[in-house]
């Protein structure tokens, strides 16, 4: 009964978010203020803002959250009340970020999202990888949030206001503007898993698949893109910050795409894809133009649809197969079993992967082309940043097509060269399963799981046309050619039953190991030194003082013998000693 109540409340709240977006659509932008707190120049109010960007993000968050809540009814059957409450709180935190016109109110929503993500990722807390992934997500994002907090103070005190709508028109020094925006960028990099704080997001995959869809498609990781879009005039005025953002975005999109090329788990491929696609949005924002901002937000919306769809499809697959490993899924895919047993999942996941790969006609094609076109216009005007972004996005587009086709073929189709495919990945048990997989129980999920898939699949197609069909044929031809160039090697490798993965890619460039040596090991040594200092130095003094007090009390206790003769003797001795002392002093 309690679980059902929470589920009804969760779905109801998500629908309320959608209703709010509908009611606010077309309304005049306005700011509503509530009493605040602080002292002197550090005083701030809690302000709410409604404009076109607010409506757009409320619609995205509301739709994806509703799909996740409905999907979870059939997907999740343990710890339902806590799970639904956290998902609802998580959605409310993102809504707070979206409607905030106060930097500190935005910070509250920002931090609540971080806390909820930690708890949701560790939903299966009995699993070691879930606990480790949740802890990594919490620590890495908190590291970025330290910079975010200081950035709020630098910008707010420098501009004399913490109201977002007033920052762009304030008289703030160039130094404070650059420092403040760079510090905010540190928080954005952590929350959106960009280099060098990218390692937490792929390791967050042990959480439930609907959680991955919510966190990695439309809310937490997208909050960084939203923040820069909200403060775009402020960031555009800080030219140095935009250059840093461009470098971070270009490095991240290529790095993450290469990691996705080599990943062997379905959700891990999608996780690295999320990191890469977010970097494309940041690259568009780094152009500092209205077209770049528009392209970034367009891609944010389409990405929410097709990436949410892909994570939910992965959840259906893993719900049936019982493992997140891409290797295990291939036990069934040798004979194309999943495609035949789960037709709805196959079709919807195909649509999601096509949108992600930028296949013409799907939403991702239009939004990705808008980024390429914005970069081309900027590069044509002689901008070095424009050329760097253009080349990086094109290379990433080709690699995206590669890992999308690779994932699609290996999961859903029988490998023609079966004999050549059995050596590299599967152990003896897995090879035995290839010969006679148990397919009797494989089926599509319930309508509560399939309904959200169909809805998001429609979005992964239709959203490309919602912005008005604007196609630059040279750009469309270029991106289509890049998709084909990326897809052909994946098809060739699959047909030959080969899936070579260079060690450096398989180990994701060894970044985790390097961070372990550079950060984790020194921190552990410092922790041990702190323990030794506290236990043997500070604790030694404390224990010594306590021991001295104990010995003194034991000595005094020895004087309390209860013998009257002893007390009189000591009293007489004391009087004589005082008399002698008085005589010495008087002399």
Q: How would you describe what is shown here?
A:
By secondary structure, the chain is mainly α. It folds into 3 domains: 1-237, no CATH class; 238-502, no CATH class; 516-586, no CATH class. 75% of the residues lie in helices and 3% in strands. It has 24 helices and 2 strands. The chain has a two-stranded antiparallel sheet with strand order 1-2. Strand 1 (30-37) and strand 2 (44-50) form a beta hairpin. Helix 2 runs antiparallel to helix 3, helix 7 runs parallel beside helix 11 (239-262) and helix 13 packs antiparallel against helix 20. The radius of gyration is 31 Å and the shape is elongated. Its main location: membrane. It is found in: Endomembrane system; Membrane. This is NADH-quinone oxidoreductase subunit L. GO terms for molecular function: NADH dehydrogenase (ubiquinone) activity; NADH dehydrogenase activity. One of its GO terms (cellular component) is membrane.
Characterize the quaternary organization of these chains: single chain
Question: What share of residues is helical?
Answer: over 70%
Question: Which word captures the global form?
Answer: elongated
Distance between the termini: 95 Å
Structural class: mainly alpha
Low-confidence stretches: 324-329, 419-437
Identify the notable features of this structure and list them briefly:
587 residues, mainly alpha, 3 domains, 75% helix, elongated, NADH dehydrogenase (ubiquinone) activity, membrane
């Amino acid at each position: 009964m309690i679980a059902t109540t929470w589920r009804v409340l969760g779905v109801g709240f998500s629908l309320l978010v959608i209703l709010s977006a509908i009611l606010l659509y077309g309304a005049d932008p306005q700011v509503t203020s509530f009493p605040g707190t602080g002292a002197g120049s550090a005083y701030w109010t809690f302000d709410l803002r409604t404009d076109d960007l607010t409506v757009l993000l409320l619609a995205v968050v509301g739709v994806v959250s509703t799909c996740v809540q409905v999907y979870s009814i059939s997907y999740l059957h343990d710890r339902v009340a806590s799970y639904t409450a956290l998902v609802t709180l998580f959605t409310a935190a993102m809504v707070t970020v979206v409607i905030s016109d106060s930097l500190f109110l935005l910070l509250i929503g920002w931090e609540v999202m971080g806390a909820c993500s930690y708890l949701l990722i560790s939903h299966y807390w009995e699993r070691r990888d879930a606990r480790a992934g949740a802890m990594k997500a919490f620590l890495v994002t908190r590291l970025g949030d330290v910079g975010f907090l200081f950035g709020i103070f630098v910008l707010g005190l420098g501009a004399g206001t913490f109201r977002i709508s007033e920052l762009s028109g304030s008289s703030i020094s160039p130094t404070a503007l650059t420092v403040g925006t760079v510090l905010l960028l540190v928080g954005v990099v952590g929350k959106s898993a960009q280099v060098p704080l990218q390692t937490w997001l792929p390791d967050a995959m042990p959480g439930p698949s609907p959680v991955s869809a919510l966190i990695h498609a439309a809310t937490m990781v997208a909050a960084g893109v939203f923040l820069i879009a909200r403060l775009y005039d402020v960031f555009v005025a800080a030219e140095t910050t935009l250059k840093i953002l461009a470098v971070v975005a270009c490095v991240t999109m290529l790095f993450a795409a290469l990691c996705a090329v080599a990943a062997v788990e379905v959700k891990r491929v999608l996780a690295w894809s999320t990191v890469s696609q977010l970097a494309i949005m940041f690259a568009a924002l780094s152009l500092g133009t209205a077209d770049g901002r528009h392209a970034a937000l367009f891609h944010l919306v389409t990405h929410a649809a097709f990436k949410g769809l892909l994570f939910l499809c992965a959840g259906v697959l893993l719900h049936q197969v019982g493992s997140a490993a891409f290797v295990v899924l291939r036990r069934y895919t040798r004979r194309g079993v999943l495609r035949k047993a789960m037709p709805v999942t196959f079709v919807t996941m195909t649509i999601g992967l096509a949108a992600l790969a930028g296949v013409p006609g799907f939403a991702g094609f239009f939004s990705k082309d808008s980024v390429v076109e914005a970069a081309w216009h900027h590069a044509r005007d002689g901008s070095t940043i424009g050329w760097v972004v253009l080349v990086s996005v094109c290379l990433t587009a080709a690699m995206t097509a590669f890992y999308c086709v690779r994932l699609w073929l290996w999961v859903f189709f029988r490998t023609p060269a079966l004999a050549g495919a059995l050596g590299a990945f599967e152990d003896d048990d897995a090879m035995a399963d290839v010969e006679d997989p148990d397919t009797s129980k494989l089926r599509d999920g319930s309508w509560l799981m399939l309904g959200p898939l169909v809805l998001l699949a429609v979005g992964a197609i239709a959203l490309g046309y919602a912005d008005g069909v604007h196609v630059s044929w040279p750009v469309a031809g270029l991106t289509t050619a890049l998709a084909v160039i990326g897809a052909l090697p994946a098809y060739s490798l699959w047909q030959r039953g080969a899936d070579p993965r260079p060690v450096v890619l398989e180990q994701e460039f060894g970044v985790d190991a390097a961070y372990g040596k550079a950060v984790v090991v020194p921190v552990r040594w410092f922790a041990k030194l702190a323990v030794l200092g506290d236990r043997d130095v500070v604790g030694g003094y404390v224990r010594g003082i306590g021991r001295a007090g104990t010995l003194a009390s034991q000595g005094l206790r020895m004087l309390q013998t209860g013998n009257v003769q002893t007390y009189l003797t000591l009293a007489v001795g004391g009087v004589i000693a005082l008399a002698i002392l008085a005589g010495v002093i008087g002399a």
